[in-house]
Amino acid sequence: MHQYKDKKRNILLIFIILFSLSSINSRLFMEKKEELYDLRYIEVIGLDDATNFEIEQNLNFLKNTNIFFIDREILRDQVQKYNFIENYNIFKSYPSKIIIKLEQTEFLARTIKNNEIFLIGSNGKFINIERFNNYENLPLIFGKFTADKFINLKKIINKSDLDYTTIKEIFFFPSGRIDVKNKKNILIKLPMQKFQESLNMANKIINNNNLKNNVIDLRIPNQLILSNE
């Protein structure tokens, strides 16, 4: 009877030890499993190497966070600090990597605000030039205007016969009227309406080899005035 009790006690003890080991292993497994999904790598692509690296560094605080719980809003806010980014995509590459693909806005023109030069992006934003160069060939925009108003004008120019790349300067007047000067210093004075038709006419006149004037005045309906400044 005594041996039976000892045997029973030993079996119970073995069971307790096995259960404890199983619990420990299970806990360690869960901990390792959770660590497996900790964010370890952040890759930013699409811009120049220096800017990609800068954004990666700005996001380092997210590392060792469970990738399932990383809020895309946080990633978006970091990306949107750079107003020269037009589009972005965020991919979670499980178990431990995030890839952010960025697309830089297209620079359409330059303008001067508070004695500083800014680029106008196709995303409708004014962008400081400090990160960029080789923008001198872009048209220079004068006057008070919004980026959206300029972009709408560019769409009209693109639909017209006038080549946008030949434009040197654009002037926005308080009245709403617009002048366009090309790289040959020919000034086109546009009417308040019918921009596309007027640009088509101006382009036809410019391409006339006999043009000896540098001002094409189309402000008065049904009239064409050629003069020199």
Give an overview in words.
The chain has 229 residues and is an alpha/beta fold. It folds into 2 domains: 41-104, Ubiquitin-like (UB roll), CATH 3.10.20.310; 107-227, 3-Layer(aba) Sandwich (Rossmann fold). The chain is 34% helix and 27% strand. It is built from 5 helices and 12 strands. Strand 7 (140-142), helix 4 and strand 8 (167-172) form a beta-alpha-beta unit. 14% of the residues are buried.
Task: Give me a quick take on this structure.
This protein has 229 residues and is of the alpha/beta class. Helix content is 34%, strand content 27%. About 3% of the residues have low confidence.
Write the layout of secondary structure elements.
Elements: H1 2-36, E1 41-45, H2 49-58, H3 72-79, E2 85-93, E3 97-104, E4 107-113, E5 116-121, E6 126-128, E7 140-142, H4 147-159, E8 167-172, E9 178-182, E10 187-189, H5 195-206, E11 215-217, E12 225-227
Low-confidence regions: 28-34
Number of separate structural domains: 2
Q: Strand percentage, roughly? A: 25-35%
How far from one another are the termini? Answer: 124 Å
The CATH homologous superfamily of the largest domain is named Cell division protein FtsQ/DivIB
CATH class annotation of the largest domain: Alpha Beta
Quickly give the CATH architecture of the largest domain: 3-Layer(aba) Sandwich
Percentage of residues assigned to helices: 25-40%
Mean pLDDT: 85
Helix and strand sequence: HEHHEEEEEEHEEEHEE
Which value, in Å, is the CA radius of gyration?
33 Å
| Count of β-strands | 12
